[in-house]
Amino acid sequence: MDVDSPQANGMKRKGRKSNENKASYREDSESEDMPLSKRRRTSSKPVKPESDSESDVPLAKKPSAKDVNSLSKQKEKFEKRAEKEAKAIRKDAPKKVKQETPKGNTKKQTPSASAKAKKAVVKDEEVDEDEDEEYRWWENVQQGDGTKKWATLEHNGVVFPPDYEPLPKDVKFYYDGNPIDLHPEAEEVATFYGSMLHSTVNVENPTFNKNFFEDFQGYIKKTGGAKNAKTGDKVDIKSFEKCNFKHIFEWFDAEREKKKALPAADKKAAKAEKDKTEAPYQYCMWDGRKQKVGNFRVEPPALFRGRGEHPKTGRVKKRVFPEQITINIGKDATVPAPPEGHKWKEVKHDQEGTWLAMWQENINGAYKYVMLAANSDVKGQSDYKKFEKARELKKHIDHIRKDYQKNLRAEKMVDRQMASAIYLIDRLALRAGNEKGEDEAETVGCCSLKYENITLEPPNHVIFDFLGKDSIRFYDKVEVDPQVFKNLKIFKKAPKGRGDDVFDRLTTSGLNKHLQQYMTGLTAKVFRTYNASWTMANLLKDIKATGNVAEKVKIFNDANRRVAILCNHKRTVAASHENTMEKMTERINGLVYQQWRCKQMMLELDSKIKKKKGAEYFALPSQLDEEWVRKHQADLVAEQREKIQKKFDKDNEKRIAEGEKKMSGKELDERLEAVDELQKKFKKENKTKKVEPEGRGPSVEKLEQNIDKITQRIETMKVQSEDKEANKEVALGTSKINYIDPRLSVVFSKKFDVPIERLFSKTLREKFDWAIKSVDDDWEF
DNA sequence: AAACAGGACTCAGAAACCTCATT
DNA sequence: AAATGAGGTTTCTGAGTCCTGTT
Question: Which structural domain, as residue segments, surrounds residue A519?
Fold first, then answer.
């Protein structure tokens, strides 16, 4: 092997000490566990500080690791398909290409001609009443270079958050046990913190608290200090521990309650009022067409809630004034008036931008844009382009794969790293991984993977463990090509150690530049889109049309889930999850018990049946035990008692309402007799170990039927519960919204007769209008 | 000419809100 | 049949990607 030695790489992008702590360069340090433990603490999934012993990490992952394995096998199959298809596409390229161009797009259509055509189409389709003329851009996609986004643009600017309203006199921030008077500006900052005491992820994060307190102190100083509200003495606020925001929190909480408790009519009226004042901002006119604006509200001041270990989390995000806002609008349009006594920072007429307004936030200097909503034409068009780009990759994917497979053995280190990186991006759907600054959370993507994120397990298993976008953990044990394994080992060779880049010769722009050679516009992220949609397409392809709508929807969601897992889209486990799961197992156990009782009844009816079916059949199922049975019986009894009591109370209420007399306690006792009987029955069963047959004309056959029915119910419940458990930390939404070509879903809907409403919510239907209206059931990704 | 800053866009999960079933 | 609560939907805004222009 003639690879450049890693040492040759003296110049690192970021000045990192690379020759200290030699001890850690030992080869075998690779196999050490390199936990992200400390970093993980504040990530969305709180991990107990002490729980980072290696044993529990793989354990927690075990079930999903199996999934991933079967998925990767399936992926292999899909890759073969991809190769075949790529070849096929190239073979009859001339034909296909013609087909691909949108129908009716004959070379240069004059705008007026296309407008006419468009009208004609609209005419013979029934038109939505309120949508006078829809613009079917997907039937005539512009080929232009796309730099000019609009010709005319009119809009009404932005909505500012309400001014700060000081707290009532009796609601105070407390310090060292004393109520404190603050200048409204400082008090506002106190309310930022005080109103979010329930947000434990933030309020229990030391960095958050430190940053907030620093800023809070600054505000107090700037506004003339804090005073004891009783004595008027100056108070020096110097210890966060002595701060008490409870009263503020309680006030906010009470306000929330008050608002919630408002009569429905009042709530409705308030909402109508708000809608009315905001109506002018909801829409804009874009090239003469009415388009929905997305986020026309300026972000209100608050505490910055950076994700993961963001160094600036907790800092005060200041109120945005008109003087900071740049407006982008058509030359001939009326510029929206800034609030009384204010003016805009600037008014632009940038036709290459799709934004209507913009400002820079004070914490990271990040740009904030007001843009159109997801259902607008511009957004739809770029969405369409994105998926077409991904589809284009189909034609090249086999070449690209062959090429990187070959280059895994390239002589030059850069080439090898390039090939290995693309391998990972393609196989694991990793993000590109730009360099990040000092004052951001330390997260990585492919190019920025660190030494400690990769653990090599001979012969060719690699464990990836890192925090990706939004500090979401990526953990996976993957079987890789032996050459990739070798390469990674080389890339990790001493003197590299903790903190060093695995791909020290790569940058995202270099990688993307390389990708452009295969296909214009090809970048790392296209692979994510391509692989997600391609996976979905193949999963759906393998489906047979059986079952009812609900079952088909489930199949669709299962495929969706596979894609979500591929993309590592996660959510935090709902607080109620464990509880729900427990309830479900209880219910299953209840059914199992019911079933067992039926079997016992059989024994009473037919003395020979025990031999016939075997003793095993009649034994108490292993998941139940004596103790559980007792408890369950008691629960059943209590449940029934409660039910009867409730019914009794209700009946009585009714009687009173109708002017009748209340029923006596005797009546209740009588009704409760059934419960007593049940209790007695259980007692007897426990004692005699026999269950008397129930129901009219009990027979072994009937019981068997009943048992079958219960088995069915148990099965469905089990599936449900397993489903729930497997899905508890998988977020389906992100892939549905951003990665799966919506036309796939539309085709599925048409082909299998599943109403599109079952797959797409209202907003998604609007966003994917172009997909819903442009394909029929033989479209393929 | 690589490296870097600026800028504009897509993608991301949490929180807020709404809805509908259950009791 | 009002309350509850769980699940789905929408909003919010932070966090990426990637392009461009400048040095």
Answer: 24-75+379-536
